[in-house]
Amino acid sequence: MHIFSNGGIKDRLRQYPNRLTAFFCAVLALALTGCEQLQYYHQAATGQWQLMGSRTPVARLLADSETDPALRRQLELAQDILGFAQQKMGMPHRGKYQSYVALADRYVVWNVFASPALAFASPRWCYPIVGCTPYRGFFDKEDAEQFAGDLGDTGYETYIGGVSAYSTLGWFKDPLLSSFLSYHPADLAELLFHELAHAQIWAPGDAVFNESLADFVGTEGARQWLLTDGTDGYRKLAVWLKRQQQWEQMKQRLLELKDRLSEVYGDVSLSDDEKLLRKRDRYAEFRQCYNENRADLGGGRFDRLVSEGVNNAFLVSLATYTNWREALQIPWRDAQQDWTSFFASMQLLEQLPHEKRQQQLERWQEEARRGVPLARDDQHTDYADDPDAKEVQC
Length: 394
Description:
The protein is mainly alpha-helical.
């Protein structure tokens, strides 16, 4: 992260007094609950402050003849994607992504997930504005590693996930970051649509709904944006969908592993030692399945994840981001793929109490799994499935 080299606190606050002052007041109020909270919110406030103070306007970079051509192309591409989001999807940027920050690291934030060794039960951490989530975010990787280590000392399994982008839900004018601006065009579109969706719809404390919705909007939006490029867009869509399908295959195997482990953890006839032995066996079976089907599961894309990263905490993080995406196909179908109607239904869902929102999502999930035909653009279906894709069963 960039450290400010000049300018005092008062000078920086004067640049954006309303939002920053409110943010710091909220942080300080919560920080008074204890030293650990004070340290955590201090790093959060400092990280956000440094990020906002390091911005360069996109307009200035585009007007500067010295701007690197590769950076210029990506900045122009991002503006094209944002224009599509506003004109075709009803998601205006409202000043977001109109500036750029070159980070000193690959990621902007690191999220720490945790879960007990014999259960899928993440701790929940609560924050101002956003509510409670099953992860704790840090601007400094060493802070994330220290926090994960402390959780590990108390018996938790942990997973640290690098984050390329995050949304401040409209509190700040989020910048474009070097951590994601160099993405492949389809991936960049998916990410920007994902983050704009967070600013559009956010149910405080319901991380699974929020992330599932943003994931859905990002994917569907990227499909539509790619197809604006005519024949070449169809080709790009086919290539992108093939990579998406590789991840979908892998994700299904991971969720199946989670289900098998849940059966072990919930078996009251087993002692903890017996559960640990069966857990080890389930993981060994998963790794064997992956190795036997590696060519159809990304051709090596996920080797490091399988060898180093899969544990209870990772599986908790996976469910957080994708749990309701299938269910959301139903309101998307009912809206006839019209973004205005779809977001209107999501706003109604957002306003429901958590329990009622869960019930509605469960009904949609059941309907989707019964095989109800989903309305799709015929042109999309021609490119929606790789005819050479092999269904992997473990």
